[in-house]
Amino acid sequence: MGERKVILSGNRPTGRLHIGHLFGVLQNWAKLQEDYETYFEIADWHALTTKYRDTSSLKSDIEDMVIDWLISGISPEKSVIFVQSHIKQHAELHVLFSMLVSLSRLLRNPTLKEYVAEREALKLKTEKKTLNRIAQNISQKILKEDEERKEVLEGKIKEFILKELEDNLFSEDSEVPYGDIVNYGFLGYPVLQAADILIYRAHVVPIGKDQLPHLELTREIARRFNSLYGEVFPIPEPILNEFAKVPGTDGRKMSKSYNNTILIGEDAESLKKKIMSSYTDPQKIRKNDPGHPDTCPVFHYHMIFNRENAENIKTECIKGVRGCVQCKKEIFSKMDTFMEPYREKRKKYEEKRDLVWDIIREGDKKAREKAEGTMEIVREKMKINY
User: What are the pLDDT digits (tens) for 73-86?
Assistant: First the structure.
């Protein structure tokens, strides 16, 4: 590995992974490990930014995710697989980096803004339901018989409470914007992410275009540190990947939150149930109705798992000579065959979960050695190695 450039990438542990991860990330990682010194991080501290209330499944989630890494071609002989929280040097570098970043810079984080918008919308929706109940109860108690006056009063009460809610939720007078919605860990996670990358002095980071703003903060921190204390960190460059987009069984983005995933190595019975009940073209009611395959997730699966026949299937669907049931049965057969090797590999690791932790412990050891080497340089450059 010596002279090769370094890559750092990773995932938050969320348990078993789906085929969107396989074609979008894991196959690419498997290729990169052939040409780079690769570090793959199990980002459990990052998971805690939103999952801190219930950590009971974290250990099993780590095991399941790493098993999917291994069966997808990530090799412990070629790559370093480690748990973020096992390498305490990440936290040390995070603290030092946090001195170099302004609060206003963190508040401009696009992910933070998206998270806040979702939370505020949800909070307001919940509060509106509550205010409806309050307004109805108050108006009913005040005016038991006069329905017309009760309606007017109820409307005025709602209007008043809603204004109070909106003033409270979106007030410009709060000490820090979104202060009551965002925890400190979520606000500072991009700084920890910068520490994750730079502690291995990574030269490149594989990401999609939508993640470029996240990497830019890491680059800013590296430049600022180097200008203040001397050259330590390379300025990491992105490896832009056009990740394959795999739709969920309902046509939306494949995501556990939508309950529309197909797992890597999904068992045959479960796979068949998911495929046969998956979303298809709502305008194709009868077999001979012309179809619209470009918007059908089942056709997208044909494009991935049955590429050699995909164009013919598309033509038959558009002409109305192919039915959805036939289409689903064919793709199930192809996907079932594809999944079989993954199932077999997964079974071996599930029966020997201790082996997974042996791999992680070995990776932790290598990662810790690399990270401590960086921290020795950092402490010396900052003159805090007293």
Answer: 999 999 999 999 99
Q: How far apart are CA 279 and CA 287, in angstroms?
A: 15
Question: Rounded to two decimals, what is the model's pTM?
Answer: 0.84
Q: What is the mean pLDDT of residues 28-36?
A: 96
| Tokens of residue 180, six digits | 């009551």
Other CB atoms within a 10 A radius of the CB of residue 368 amount to 15
